Request: fold
Amino acid sequence: MLDVSTEAWRLVAGIAAVLTLASLSGQVLRIVVARSEPHALIDNLNKRINSWWVIAIIVGLALLGGSGGVTLLFALASLAALREFVTTEVPARCPRALLLSACLIIVPLQYLLVWHGSYLAYTTFIPSLVFVGLPLLGQLSGNAEEFLSRTRTLRHGLLLCVFCVSHVPALLTLHVGGDPARAGWLLVFLLLIAQISDVLQYLWGKLAGQYPIAPKLSPSKTVEGTVGGIASASMLGAGLSSLTPFTTVEAALISLLITLLGFAGGLAMSAVKRRRGIKDWGKLIPGHGGVLDRLDSLILPAPVFYYVLRYGWAD
Reply:
């Protein structure tokens, strides 16, 4: 999928170098600071770093597998995220049969449409199902109000965890600049900026954070962390412009858009978690939480980035 070029190897080497440096720093902190007794913050940091190694390897293998590998990876991620989103609602209201149907039929079908490149189908299938199909099913059930109330979480989950996230592999269906490999690099660009912004906001917050930006929704997010992380990630995006069809200024502005939307998405999902009385969506990824804790910064940027490319740069 990705053209092996000088930029490719530099990017791979850069990611490996950053993770190696982070791993070494984490171990030094563990030895120097937490040598006498466990230190929760440092232990969590090392868990996060170890998980990033695993995530980077899995994403790399998926990219080597081409569009099929990437689509399969995000289909599995959507399944896990949808399950986390629906099952953390207490008391559980979504009928198990509908959740099972969503996991076995709706999610696979959505990603099959993406893999096939059926633009009209994958951009209308889930919205039509959520806004027309399920309400119609509710009318046929004889108690539409109760049915829609019980399926509200599933409908929201399908839009956020499946429809929005499926726009990540959908990037591979775009033809940009006449280079088949370009779409793969744009996918990498989106993932790097969105995820690194998250990491940098976390680090800036720990190093310089003083003033909470949304104390009622996410007490751990600070003004300093948010501004520092978003600014740093935007500058990184400008530095990666050679992998994209963007100029340096365009890459910086699009990176800024990605990071702002990622922050908004993360804050919105934090509000949902706070309302449900949970800290994380799950425990699948050590140091991070659940799959949805990693996907929340992609939920809003993925579709916006896709349509910006489709109507601004695609052939």
